[in-house]
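step: validate -> pass
step: tokenize input -> pass
step: predict -> running
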Amino acid sequence: MADSFDVIVIGGGPGGYNCAIRLGQLGLSTACIDKRGSFGGTCLNIGCIPSKALLHASEMYEEAKTHFPKMGITTGALGVDLPTMMAHKDKVVGELTKGVEFLLKKAKSEAIVGEAKIIAPGKVSVKTKDGTRELTTKHIVIATGSDVAPLPGVPVDEKTIVSSTGALALPTVPKRLLVVGGGVIGLELGSVWRRLGAQVTVVEFLDRIIPGTDLEVAKTFQRILEKQGIAFKLGMKVTGVAKGKTGLIASVEPAKGGAAEKIEADVILVAIGRRPFTDNLGLDEVGVKRDQRGRVVTDDHYQTNVKGIWAIGDVREGAMLAHKAEDEAVACAERIAGKAGHVNYDAIPSVIYTYPEVAGVGKSEEDLKAAGIAYKVGKFPFTANARAKANLTTDGFVKILADAKTDRVLGVHMIGPDVGNMIGEASLGLEFSAAAEDIARTCHAHPTLTEALRQAAMAVDGWTMQM
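step: predict -> pass
step: emit ->
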């Protein structure tokens, strides 16, 4: 094993392993270091992938309960075999982590399991199970991702008070689940356990859910989730948790002050966000700057203030999304190799994988109003989409925001069936500076859900063709 590399990547998640792979493709020798023991980071091991496995399984269960009879499909008694469901989730994770290791090997990147620390520019010390390795390099890429943000007064034990990690591995379905945080993680995992039988209550500090999302979409989303059985307490905060006779008792009070109330729960999920993981990396010792939120400060090309040290993904500014980290990984690798790597942040989509799904890319109406940009709106409901009607999946709509003068698409926001896949077309449109008319005049197969996007584009100029 070599102890000298062109580039050392610290972190084996979507940012780290993609960076190492791209560097290998560009002819640079690399090492990718991760302390977890299985590569893929939070996303693959305890985040995106296992949550989607449970979301899909629980959605199929609810589909069988609610939609099958309407379509003439009869079944016997339905039940939930939670251990088998969890085994399916673990199998998916195991297969994909092995896939990451294969890709690193293919790119001739040495995958090192251990805890890395930067001891000087160009020098990394790694504690492994066999001892300590001292590595030298020309470049270091920090791609250590993020960790769960703690909630004061609510200590996580991953048994009855859980983070997203514990919520992905509950041994039984809780009767009462209290979710602290109305963001993506809380709503996705809350949806899983609600479908499987839990009574779910969401407490959110702000007066709305999924902050940063187009407000009209967020309000529609909340109404749909409430119809599904999720209760919301907005503008509220959890200040403490005590043990009661039949479970946990959370103290909840208005965010702006006022009388507290008590909420009983069997399990409490703390999902108030994530924070960059930059502890014990030696950043302060080598002089790498961090901001007030602990994020590594970089320039537009991912270079820190210390020459030869770079940072990508959740540890730097911007949305904490796996695909954002992947794009930055490629751009950073190409910069290191002397090429012109670049990321268009206006074309990075976001998706919430509940039912219905929520997806968006570009500017929201609130963004455009704040910036004083004149815009046009085109909307189309899934109730008027033939495929959605046939599938009994008519909740939601597609909304396109276009520049009032140039017709250039500025933002696309969707709530409805399979919009997580549909948003890709919208992202491509923003990447190529498409006009709403470009989408409106692009032929879409009939009958498909994607026609809703085309019809919304037509609606920007008032010539929608369907119902």
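step: describe -> The chain has three domains: 4-148+275-343, 161-272, 347-460.
step: cleanup -> pass
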